[in-house]
Amino acid sequence: MYISRRTDKITGSRIFRYAPRAVPKMAGRNSSILILISLYLHSSSFVLGSVSNTELSAFVTGIWNDDTNGASFSDITYNLQSHTSSSSSADLANNRLFHYVNENHLFTKPTYSAFIALLDNFDKNTAHSEHTSSTETAEIDRFITEVMKTSVMSETYRFLHGKGYTTSTTAFRDTLKSIWFTQYSRSGTSHGSNGFEHVFVGETTSTDVSGFHNWIQFYLEEKLGHINYLGYIYSNQPRKLGVHFTWYNKPKPLTTLLVGTSPEFDLAVLTTCFLVRKNTNCHFDMAGNYLTVKSYDVSYVHGDQVATAYFN
Q1: Does the active-site annotation cover 198?
Q2: Could you read off the pLDDT of 181-194 as tens digits, one per residue?
Q3: Which of 86, 211, 284, 304 can pair with 254 through a Cys bridge, CB separation 3.0 to 4.6 Å?
Q4: CB-based burial of residue 148 (10 Å sphere; 0-12 exposed, 13-18 middle, 19+ buried)?
């Protein structure tokens, strides 16, 4: 039996066809079974990773509606102030972006508290090597454990399992840990980055800010005085903001924040898009709103690791 491969011109998916080689003479029952298996495989085509935009839309809308840990409108108040552009260096916002966040209600939830515990585990400078301590490893494991308990991540597992992207809950846990928390070099010299740090925490180079796509981290850093909010670039439903700011006096011309989502929701959507639409645009409708996620793999490292993933 041999395997031939081609790419479907419509879906872009890799199609594998199994075809039988000549079957040697075998006595009795074993020969018949082998022939039947070969004929069955020859008649079947398997499309690996085939997920339509319609399926993605139904999945994401489902977990959006099921995100019971997401913030309500009364939990968060933000102040957009003046419109700006990514090329502007002017500070057009006299006040902070976030006016109020109901910390007592939100940040005591298990996934939020486990998420927040991770935020101080990283050196934001991509040129600095990092070592993950046993305490930090335990915090990573706790975060994954807590998100796996949620209905949002349970549904994500079922969706990806049904599409062949994972084989068991244990394998899915391992995938989450591997693609988000494996250390690699972003500067070319030091192993000082990983996908979680880049996307959810933020990083700095010698000149600017990279990554930093999470509203919780933005709120906490702004509260500490580390962020200077300069104005908004766009504001779209559902509470998707494009903002301009500096972090430790280094500029981030534009970052996208989906305000009020739970940690597990962001992780679920970004993980799914990374797995099923890696290195390309991930388009879907979410509760009537057209959204795109961009995600990229670390091309120079063996295996799958998130280089970046964000709502565009």
Answers
A1: yes
A2: 999 987 677 777 89
A3: 86
A4: middle
> Cβ distance 265 to 152 under 8 Å?
yes
CB 215 within 8 A of CB 260: yes
Q: What is the CA radius of gyration of the chain?
A: 23
Is residue 47 within 8 A of residue 161, CB to CB? The reply is no
Look up the pTM and report it.
0.83
* Segment 1-17, tens digit of pLDDT: 333 333 333 333 333 33
Contacts of residue 295, Cβ cutoff 8 Å, sequence gap at least 6: 270, 273, 274, 277, 278, 279, 282, 306, 308, 309, 310
DSSP string spanning 147-196? HHTSHHHHHHHHHHHHTTS-SSHHHHHHHHHHHHH--B-SSSSS--B-HH
- How many Å apart are CA 131 and CA 123, to the nearest integer? 10
124 carries an active-site annotation: no
Instruction: Determine which one of 124, 198, 244, 294 is catalytic.
Output: 198
What pLDDT was estimated at residue 187?
64
What tokens were used for 282?
């991930």
Spatial separation of the C-alpha atoms in residues 295 and 83, rounded to whole Å: 27
Of 28, 3, 1, 27, give the one whose Cα is nearest residue 14: 3
Query: Which one is catalytic: 240, 244, 252, 294?
Result: 252
Residue 262: CB partners within 8 Å, gap ≥ 6?
67, 69, 70, 71, 109, 111, 112, 150, 152
List the catalytic residue out of 213, 240, 244, 294: 213
Single-letter residue type at 62: G
Count how many Cα atoms sit within 13 Å of the Cα of residue 212 in the half-sphere of its side chain.
29
- Does the active-site annotation cover 283? no
The answer to whether 175 and 108 have CB atoms below 8 angstroms apart is no
